Structure formats: C-alpha cells, structure tokens
Amino acid sequence: MLSLLKGRYRARFAEGEADLQAAQRLRYLAFCSGAGGGAQAGLDADAYDPVCAHVLVEEVKTGRLVCCFRILHLTDGAEISRSYSAQYYELSALTEFDGPMVEMGRFCIHPACHDPDILRVAWGAMTAYVDREGVEMLFGCSSFHGVEAREYYDAFALLRDRHIAPKRWLPRVKAPSVFRFASRLRRKPDLKQARAKMPPLLRTYLLMGGWVSDHAVVDLELNTLHVFTGLEIRAIPPARARLLRGVAG
After folding, report:
1. Domain ranges of the chain
2. Which of 27, 46, 115, 172 is 20–30 Å from 140 (CA)?
3. Are strands 137-145 and 101-109 parallel, antiparallel or unpaired?
C-alpha cells in the first residue's frame, strides 16, 4: 500500500473503479483529449490502465483530486516492450538494463491548481515506492503541450546541449512523426526561456540527473510533443535524494 500525508495533500493508490474513473476524468481535462479510445465521453482511458497502479494526490480538506499518475513495474529491461513508451520509441538498448524499472505515465496536475507542493507530494509518493520496491530506473514520456515545436526551441536546445541520454541507453526513432531536435536545431538556447518552457515534471527529472531521447514524438491524439525520459536512481545527487526522502518520510 501507499499512503502519504503532507500538509494540505495526501497521496494514495487508487482503489476500485470510482477512483480509476476520477483519474481518467482528470487526465481528460489535463490533456484535452479522450485519447486511447475512452469508452465514455470525458474519460482518458487506454489498454494500459488495467495493468498499472494509479496514484492519486488529493486535497485533504475537500477530497478534491489535484494530481494523478500511473506506474507500471517491470522486473528489468527485458520487459521494456510491455511499456507504453515502447509504442513510440525503439528501446532495444534498454533491454540490457538489469534492475527493476518503473514507467511513470499520464502524469498530470489539475489545470486550476498551481501549488508547487502538489508536485512535491507526488514525487514524495514516487520516492517512497522506489525505496520500498528497490527500483533502479524511472522512465516515461515527458510532454510539452501542443505540437508546434517552434514554441519550445530554446527548451529543446537546452536538452540537446545538456541532457541527451547516454549512448548505451539512447532510444531510437520508431514513431512516424518526430522532431529530431538534437540534429536539427543550431541555435544557442536562451536559458531563461528554456527553463520557462520546460514542463514541471521534466524539469524535476533533469534536476535529479535524468536524461532524454534525442528526438520528440509528435502525438496528435494527445496534442503533445513528448520526449522519452529516463532516470537512474543511483545517479540522483545525494542532496536531492535527501530532500525527496524528507517528503517521502
């Protein structure tokens, strides 16, 4: 079980169909699309939901759902083809990863909520799970809203310069429509603009030592550009790990 109470918010695993549908409604609202063939209007649902655990972050006082994400636990890299990300990225390099892995997916915060503590509690819950289960890598798709790459050129240039995956793990192109920012962009990034345009979830991954694919997938169904994102747990800086465990504890 997972249960974390910090300040105004609590994180817990979804229990039953009502909890799952609450997460699917929030995902629909956040992503502006009933992607994956949701059976009912206003729900973002797909075939991965039944095989994932779903984490809900709620406001304690009101019970309002303010954030959710799902996790898929893999024994090691040999199971990487089971992941949602494997639909969009050629991940054969990661089959050699020899420790437990977790795909963190469909992460979203209610569009009306801007309290940074929500993201902290979500990462605290993920940290508690990682420590308890001995997870050695987190990965997933980090999304930029919309499909116009030009809006994010500075952010992509910063990713190119500082955060491309190590060659041994680098995902290759699989999706039919991609933006190859590592090879196409020639600009020097404006750091202020780059950080302003970087999605909060991706920003947190990068602060912990995460890395990304060298291209972004153009996902018209979800109206996003996304990059594959990986984080080896042992690479997290000690000071950052202490902060996360402070929230998790």
Report:
1. 3-248
2. 115
3. parallel
